[in-house]
Design a protein that fits this description.
With about 150 residues, the protein is an alpha/beta fold. The protein contains five helices and five strands, in the order βααβαβαββα. It binds 1,3,4-trihydroxy-5-OXO-cyclohexanecarboxylic acid. The site of 1,3,4-trihydroxy-5-OXO-cyclohexanecarboxylic acid (DQA) has 10 residues, from loops.
Amino acid sequence: MIFFVPLVSQIYVNIMRIQIINGPNLNLLGIREPEIYGSKGFEEYLHILRDKYPDISIDYFQSNVEGELINKIHEVGFDADGIVLNAGAYTHYSIALMDAIKCVASPVVEVHISNVHQREEFRRHSVISPVCSGVICGFGLDSYRLAIESLVH
Ligand code: DQA
């Protein structure tokens, strides 16, 4: 008797997954205070970023709602290779967001477009910095690329 054994070949491609999360008012990038945040919208910048890192899967999420940001961190925070988080003004006071970062396994890099240390006093304090793996601020939209670089290396 002859048996035909189907040959199943599985190829596993280990692609790096990075999640970018933008918090409140960052949906208005390009329109909002361009003298501080520049005149490029984030979707436009995302194209540039994805072209620069064709071998990395870069997902993007933005919300103005604190709970939605927390839900997204929980959702991706055990699978993503890294989270690049610009929490906007929540950076300065959201203990709930700080706890969410502590809950998950993925490293979270805190990002700010502006140099928060050159601005109002209240922006100099971040409640999330102590639980993030690093902080990048002040390089405009390039801060996001630098954060990705830190996760890649
Ligand atoms: C910001 C700085 C925050 O203080 C501010 O509330 C923002 C943007 C930045 O990217 O520079 O919304 O996170």
